[in-house]
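Hi,

Apologies if this is the wrong queue. I'm a grad student, and the batch job for ExeM/NucH family extracellular endonuclease from Paeniglutamicibacter gangotriensis produced an output file that my downstream script rejects. I'm not sure whether the problem is my script or the file. Here is the sequence I used:
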Amino acid sequence: MKNRATIALATATLAASMALGAMAPATAANTQLTSIEKIQGTGTASEMVGQQVTVRAVVTGAYAEGGIRGFYVQTAGSGSEVSPEGSSGIFVYSPSGVAEVAVGDHVQVTGTVSEYYGLTQLSASASGIEVLTEPADAVKALAIEIPSSDRERERFESMLIDPQGQWTVADNYSLNQYGEMTLAQGTSSILPGERTLRQATDAFAPGSTQAQALEAENQERALLLDDGATLNFLGSNANKSVPLPYLSVDHHVSVGAAATFTGPVIMDYRYDLWRMQPQGQVVGAEDADIPAAFAQASDAGPEAVGGNVSVGSFNVLNYFTTTGDQLSGCSYYTDREGQPVTVRSGCDARGAANDQSLQRQQAKIVSALNKFDADVVVLEEIENSARFGLDRDDALATLVDALNQAAGKQQWKYVPRPVSVPADEDVIRTAMIYKNAAVKPIDESVILDDAAFDNARDPLAQAFQRVGGNSKTRFLAVANHFKSKGSDPKDGSANADKGDGAGAWNAARVDQAKALVQFAQGLKKQRNTNKVLLAGDLNSYSAEEPIRVLEKAGYVNLAAGVDTRSYLFGARTGSLDHIFGSTEVAGRVTGQTIWNINATESVAYEYSRFNYNVAQLFAPDQFRSSDHDPVLVGLQLNKK
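Support response: The file is valid. Your script probably expects a header line. Output copied below for reference.
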């Protein structure tokens, strides 16, 4: 919501200047005092708006830098309970005076009461602020499990609190831009044990009563933890020169990680959202004002899935070896020095702007895939090199060469293009790689050329057999990438977003699921196997209609039992990436997992955000090698 900061700040500045012009300086000796509780009152807004008042209180948070331009004060000795008269804390907007106070100071403030987008505050000049020498009782942090309703939260607006209960990181996307994260309080009562904010259509049918109830609960459980600033870290060069809060190469804030409060925070309301504000601006990952600790992500590979063959799905996030600088017409996203990092528009390249950027992208993908421990991997979002006048498999071959070089042996191969390739194949395609010591391909690959996929990527099928096994160990893998939920046509058609949670193009994805079922059915006899795996990015959450089509056709969601999800959008976790198996293969599953290395991590770690901030967060590791988490299943394939 901080995109409204400039307008809001101008409004507050105008209000402050009008109020300050009518004020006369006050001293501790000659001023009648008003209690903060009386100013706050018990309603949603103060009944004293426009009045000049003087309060004495203790400073609980101060922000001379970072854009907040004010400080919080609270009634001395308060905090052990909530006063029935109103909150004991209030924000003081004072750009000229905030630098004169510090947390713990006993102050007298004369200012004008106002409401700033729902936050009760005082506007005060430096002359209206006096740091007192007389001692004051310390403010206590109110230990409380934060209620869900606005009215209940109003009772301790701007007070110092000690949040109780269980907290989980639910969203970290805005850490890269606004320095804020979403935390989820407790666990879901609708989905027992769920600690994150689950995408409603990942659990319940779109538009259903259950889905609506879950989304309502998600909104109640969510609360922002801010950084004590209003900076847009993707804005001015000055902002980019301030280290991103909370994050470093070695310190992650991962979705799903437990968050433990190590210090008090202030209950704040800004930009239409309730927030927990630290007592000072958080700068970097080791700042003393950081009020919470976060469980750290493991650098190990995925959980073992057992069996003698493993199959995974991995979205490689527009891996294009044809970089923007090789083409004409490309525009770019640039770093803080104006150097191109990734292609924005204007040409067919979709990934890195130049070779340096490509090497950073490739390093992450290679690190992830070599730790993934899969024998067969279906890939999504890889370059179709034929569109650039090269062999169709050129980018795929480059990736496999890099994988083998990093592994120190020739363990990976790719599935080559079939003889027949659709003439209108997209610039982005699906692909497959495999470990040649584990499996061998049977016959050539097949691409589904069907009108249902005119707006998506064509499925690619390949039969494999375990090395040393017979036809009983044969299985068919199909790589998929269905139409995305974005770009709503808004034309009233079956593909328009109906607002039920399924997003746009649901009808297209249903047709793609039906065409996929028919495609797989026809290949079973041709490849002499009933063991079929349908894997990839289906752009459909687990309870949506395209998934139901596959299930009604007899396919089993092999990763349905895992307790993590593969994707994060809008602070909601859900799985767009799936591996479905025919009944003949489902009974041979030995384990399944979703490896949370991408969707759960801050976008700040992506190659595409290299040098966006003075804090350099890029590392050639697996974290944020894509925006989707890879899915893995283990199979026991025997000769009998």
